[in-house]
Amino acid sequence: MAANHVHMHPPPQQNDGYVKIASLQPQMNCINTYGIVLENRPVRRLANGSLVVSMRIADPSGSIIFTIMNAEVQDLFEPGDIIKIKNGFTNIYRGMLNLSCGRQGEFMKSGDFMLVYSETPNMSEFNSEYAAMERARKPSPPPEGENTAQSNSGPGDSRRPQGVRPGIPPHKRPPPGHQTGGPPHKRQDAGAGGHYRGRP
Known about the structure:
By secondary structure, the chain is mainly beta. The protein has one helix at about 130-135, and strands at about 30-40, 45, 50-60, 60-70, 80-95, 95-100, 105-110, 195. It has a domain at about 20-140: CATH 2.40.50.140. Helix content is about 5%, strand content about 30%. The chain has a five-stranded mixed barrel with strand order 1-3-4-6-5. Strand 2 and strand 3 (about 50-60) form a beta hairpin. The longest helix has 10 residues, at about 130-135. The model is unreliable at about 1-10, about 150-155, about 155-165, about 170-175 and about 180-200 (pLDDT under 50). It holds the Pfam family OB_Ssb-like. This is Single-stranded DNA binding protein Ssb-like OB fold domain-containing protein. One of its GO terms (molecular function) is DNA binding. Keywords: DNA-binding.
């Protein structure tokens, strides 16, 4: 079976340089858009400790869930805030279309105080076609009866014990809590205009 290839497409730009929410589709990138925050959604914490902050935003054409990846604080915006998004992308999560902002994206609070918006169509409603696309991209499970996590190791088995990295003998592994590499990343404070930038 041929491998699935994901192609990211730039969205159609409007005369003002922004993309209307209702025109968003899966696998778009380089999205510049704006919207008013309707509601904040529950924050998810990843294994690395960073946060995934989500909110529902709307513009005159419709609404969508906007997700900020690798966030370090959760109270970024409040309902009623008007925000601008630069270099965002769309993805599918649990069969729903999402607009996301990652390391290469930027988001900021606009100085505008009023925006005419429409909650419908809700572009993040569950879509069976999107759910099928999401399932098709997930790797296939191992054949039934095959246990890839545990197996009987015979003489001369070259497989490494769990938790041991190649090239680092167990007695030379760094102690718990030891940090390697450069200093921890520090997020820059927002500027006077409330401008936030995605982590590098």
